[in-house]
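Can you give me the bound-state structure? Components:
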Amino acid sequence: MWYILTHYWSELVQGLGYTLLSSIIALVFSTIIGTMFAIFEVLPNRAMRIIGRVYIELFRNIPLLVIAMFFYVIIPMYVAKIDGFTAGTIGLTIYTSSFIAETVRAGILSVDTGQMEGARSNGLTYWQAMRYIVLPQAFKIVIPPLGNQFINLVKNSSVLAFVAGFDLMYQGNSIASLSLDTINSYMVVGVFYLIITLPLSYYMRHLEKRLA
Amino acid sequence: MQNFIDAYSWVNIRFLLDGLWVTVEVSLISIIASFIIGSILGVLRYVKIKYLSAVVGFVVDIVRNLPLILIIFFTYFGLPHLGFKPGILFAAMLAMTIFESAMLAEIVRSGILAVDYGQMEGARANGMTYVQALWHIVFPQAIKKTIPTIVSQFISLIKDTSLATIIVLPELLNHAQIIYGQNSAFIIPMFLMVAFMYFVICYALSVLSRILDKKLA
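Here's the bound-state model for the whole set.
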């Protein structure tokens, strides 16, 4: 393991960087998109609710790899030239946003309807009430599940390896084939993933206990 | 349009269905095996046997926090270096089972924790041993509570089998790749069909999980 660490340190660090970069970009955008579709689903407008529902159900039930491969194979052929990293991150964002939408929706629904009514009767518009009264309370509830989504995101970002995204898993594969020491290469890569995910998952457990 | 008609010829569809069958087969066997192993691990983690529970907990946490792809690589490319060479199908099922067992261990443990402790006390007060109370009283209630979660875990397992294309497991996505590899005009029809097939299975299961959730709650 020591040999792999010292000889391929720069590749490993680069891979870690790409994994983190992809996860963070995907987290930011999927939180925005997910929240948008979650709001769609609680709107009084029936058509918007259906759009929200279809989006969530569609991307929750298709494998991430299929979505990522779609962007990797098809978009460059017909639309625009994008590299593996971009394609993978777009796939990751879309897939994760459907899970985040479901989480945020549950959060919004768990906020007492009296909050919305109270805000409306005090003269706020629907959007103002949503923005300043309901969403802040909903987000407080969904922070632990969102943290778990981020852990999943870091793990799922390993699909970038399929689309030449230069992430940790991709580097791990090339190190394994260069050094011919597969066991130790994969173990080192595993340790790198655990450095991100394990502390996060213990912290989330702690947070869940404290908020419960 | 002609592309779609050509792509969805009976030969191609049957080839995809063959792949779908492998997907379902691998997922089913893995979920059954990991339900058994996961339950044992979950109970072991819950009962607090000195050292053993802590070790089980630590291993479960480690496996849960690794990407499944890494485990698949490890079983297929790593194990041969340790003197054991699994076939593709076995390597895929082994990787899925290791990963899902850890996931289910955590689900089962949280299910047991959710059962009111009075159940255990009542059973003990009625003369059952600790193991009897756990097996006959607490465990069945815990499983009942966790069934919807286990079904959603099964959904993610079905989706995750697509990752085994990387070791050329002949499952749905792999078969689609073989078809569009022969004719690039089939790429879009194949992606749509694959997405549709996964969607139908996973959506049906998620509806089932929701019904179970309402029924058992």
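A couple of observations. The two ends of chain B are 48 Å apart (CA to CA). Chain B is about 80% helix and 0% strand.
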